[in-house]
Amino acid sequence: MSDLEKKISLDNAISENLSSDDFQSEKAPQSKWKQFFSDFKRPNEHDFDSTGMTHEQIAFTLIQRSKPQLKKRHLRAVAAAGGIGTGLFIGTGSSLKNGGPAALTIGFGIVGICIVCTMCAMGELGVRYPVPGSFTTYASRFLDPSWGFTLSWLYAFNWMVVIPLEIVAASMTIYYWHTDNNSAAHVNVVAWVPLFYVALLALNLFGAKGYGEAEFVFSTIKVCAMIGFIIFSIVITAGGGPVPYRGAKYFDDPGAFANGFKGVVTVLVSCAFAFGGTEISGIAATETKSPAHAIPSAVKQILWRTITFFIVGTLMLGFMLPYNGDPRLGTDDGSGQSVSPFVLALEHSMVNAVPSIFNSVIIISVFSVANAAIFASSRTFVAIGLAGYGPRWLTRWLTYIDRRGRPLGALTICFVFGLLCFVAASDAHVEVFNWLYAFSALSFLYAWGTVCLVHIRVRMAMRRQGISTSELQYKASTGIIGSFIGLGICIAIFGLQWWTSLFPLNGKPDARIFFQADLSVPCVIVMYVGHKLYTKSPLYIKLEDMDITSGVREITEETIRENEIENEARRNANFFKKIINFMC
């Protein structure tokens, strides 16, 4: 058994001695202020036998003892709209301009297939192996510790960079109203940066529950906005507004494709980045109360989200806005931020106020992504600490979990790095963020491909070790074939990314463009090889040596009772409710 497996596989005798009171002080009642400050301390480590346990094992024990703070509706909300933000609302502008409306729909369709297959695989793994860090921990346990080390740091750094980037993006989106005749519109957009930063800081003091409740509200707003956009677009396209009937006019003139095959490839790569963040629901699943029901439901939400918001939504965008119809499409509006193509499409509908309403939704969406970035990076840092992927002083800090279950050590690192949002005051802030993001720009593809590969290997190991799939509480609806498809699409997109960065669209090869797109590749190689040489571990974990039985989610009597109650409610539901349950 590897060191990592020993760290995450706790001794059953110790587990049985753990009390059910989680992260709560057993001291006498305190005043609210004293209790508030007391909650920031570590939980009492001496109410169970920790003899012979390492610091990481103690930290993992305390995490396991914590009560799940996310409910089923929270995970549904994260799955339904958690990843919708800058990539969809702003990034599609350059995609539409470079590829055309048909290329946009094709790109989101192909990447959508990859995402659905990936999330089905992650759902199966998440129900069976509830561990902090989700797929980053799976990579260490079922593939190779060196790859787990590399992916963990890369993924955590990626989301950490996103925090200041999205704070700045939310502030810059306000620049859309700079021509309005009111004082708020003429305030320097940089002045909004500290407001968003403080709001994020306050929100994350509530821990996972605060993240879940905020995302529930944000996701509801985003879902309503996208559904409203689709309905509004249908009405306008059919000639029901102040503009005449359009139909599929823009698919004929200027055309369905802007730059042929290379345009489609460029859009395909951009669409992959737009889906970034979908995997956060797999990380959030470890903090839900009933993952056996919540995770399959979340997978369904991702399917419907992909079809409705990404495919249908961008298809309607192509009906509303020609790829050469507005000079602001996919370009900087003077603030360092592109105007959303959805806002431009609504402007072309000639209906007042609607573009401003949607721009407000975009600000909320970008803020939501920043909130999700803090959640994802902090939880990944906790997994890094538990795995011991760093100096001892750092891992001790990363595994600092307070009495309310908040990863204060990891959150502190995230918010300190988030102070980079104040470089927005500099004219070079765009260049700074481009190079920072370049270090981890492909981490989403690495993560999705890893999930699919882990699922394939776990299924193969189960067959090799004689374990039936009937033991799985939840089986991926796409099966192992879906994981092969998802892995294949990830590899294809990775290769196409190299091609488009070497030979960019409408331009000559440029070293700066290439390294900003692919700088993560040499970083990955250095980290992987360095860890492999330092640990001298085998190239990969053999199927017969994989430990696929320890750390499996325990089915307690309480869990069985909750599942029976929920199943009974599903059986007795009316027809309309059964339809909702089938879809959600």
From TrEMBL:
Q: Which residues cross the membrane?
A: 75-96, 102-127, 148-177, 189-208, 220-240, 260-281, 302-323, 357-387, 408-426, 432-456, 477-499, 511-530
List localization entries: Membrane
Gene Ontology cellular-component terms for this entry are: membrane
Q: Where is each Amino acid permease/ SLC12A domain found?
A: 78-538
List the keywords (alphabetical): Amino-acid transport, Membrane, Transmembrane, Transmembrane helix, Transport
Q: How does it sit in the membrane?
A: Multi-pass membrane protein
Specify whether Signal is a keyword of the entry: no
Q: Which GO terms describe its molecular function?
A: amino acid transmembrane transporter activity
User: Which Gene3D superfamilies does the entry mention?
Assistant: Amino acid/polyamine transporter I
Using the UniProt record, give the first listed, main subcellular location.
membrane
PANTHER family tied to this protein? AMINO ACID PERMEASE (PTHR43341), GENERAL AMINO-ACID PERMEASE GAP1 (PTHR43341:SF1)
The molecule here is called: General amino-acid permease GAP1
Organism of origin is: Wickerhamiella sorbophila
